[in-house]
Amino acid sequence: METTATLMILSLILCNITISAALHWRKALYPSAFRVKRGTPALLNPSIQTSVEDANLLYEVLWSGLSVEAEKGVLRVTDKELASLRRLQSLEVVCDDILPRTLSDIRRLCYHLEQRHGHLNREDFERTLLTMVYTSQRLAQTTPGHQRELWADALLQLYKAIKGDLRAE
């Protein structure tokens, strides 16, 4: 009787540890994506790429250029014609509300990316790519010194995460 009770307790503990470990790896890289900021549920966890056309549009936006607004520190599409497209509303939400903008938040993201196993989901991949674009813009705007080295290290870590995700099988 005692052996059965002990085995049941050990089973429950093992089950709890397994569930906790599984939930740890499923932790959101961008938790702000799950908070509605603009008052509409359609923008909950927004994704930029929902079709091949959207992927091509994002490529065109990246190719035409994104710039960091100095006072707010958010990414903006430099091409006014592209920026006016309604289809880019989710890009604006991602850049304004979801992407990390401080060096400490970006370094925290890099740490979480290093801890992950397997592929990033589509949303996390595009957000990591946009964070890398933002980081490169901030690196270019930072004066030489210790802060510049930290931004450069964060950019390198994000690059490694993207490259590792593309290589993962």
From TrEMBL:
| Coiled-coil regions listed | none
Which InterPro entries does the UniProt entry name for this protein?
FAM180
Look up the domain of life of the source. Answer: Eukaryota
Does the entry feature the keyword Signal, yes or no?
yes
Q: Where does the record locate the signal sequence feature?
A: 1-22
Alphabetically ordered keywords of this record: Signal
Q: Name one Pfam family in it.
A: FAM180
UniProt keyword annotation of Transferase present:
no
State the protein's name: Protein FAM180A
Q: What is the lineage of its organism?
A: Eukaryota, Metazoa, Chordata, Craniata, Vertebrata
